[in-house]
Amino acid sequence: MSKLKIFNFISLFVIMYLVINMLLMKDVIQDGHPTLRKRAKEVELPLSNEDFNTLKSMMELVVNSQNDELAEKYMLRPSVGLAAPQINISKKMFCIVAPDEKTGQLFQFAVVNPKIISYSEEKTYLSGGEGCLSVDEEITGLVKRAKRIKAKVNIVDLETKEITEGIIKLSGFPGIVFQHEYDHLLGILFVDKMEETINDISALEFGEIEKDS
Ligand SMILES: [Zn+2]
Fold this sequence. Notes:
Distance between the termini: 48 Å
Strand content: 15-25%
Number of strands: 7
Order of helices and strands: HHHEEEEEEEHH
Bound molecules: zinc ion
Number of helices: 5
Shape: globular
CATH architecture: Alpha-Beta Complex
Low-confidence stretches: none
Structural class: alpha+beta
CATH class: Alpha Beta
Largest sheet: 5 strands, antiparallel
Strand order of the largest sheet: 1-2-3-6-7
CATH superfamily: Peptide deformylase
């Protein structure tokens, strides 16, 4: 075989490997699946290669889903977050790619073993409702969330596998997404909490970016 042929052969395998390992919508389990109702288990640290690679693929799915071209190519529903139980892995880890509604600053991170340690009394909700990749696309619902939260997290660097332990404060949209993903680790879906109308608190208005998570 010529060098070029060998090279093509190898690239074909690399591409096949990448496609096979890429998470797609078919990998996201749907409401009714028992894993979505379990309390997820703590992730063992230091992080195993398997968990690290899972987190990387989860992040890739969310990032790709926000790219119109890739979303169309791989038929991905736009999303702003994904928790491991949604791909049938009952472990405490999730990733988020969500902009701040006021500044546009992007909050993109992967965490393991997060713990929300405080919730503001002040509540808010997404005016257009929440959605979820594990719930039928047609269903959205209004869910009361804390306006601000404080959480203890282990943030995973998806390049180096390095873990940074710390406390983060989130408010507004990224805070809502965090609470939505955190619920997945407790076996809770937004449909369990949704209300028909919410009158007593002010909504978070958020043009186009109300995506599923
Ligand atoms: Zn969800």
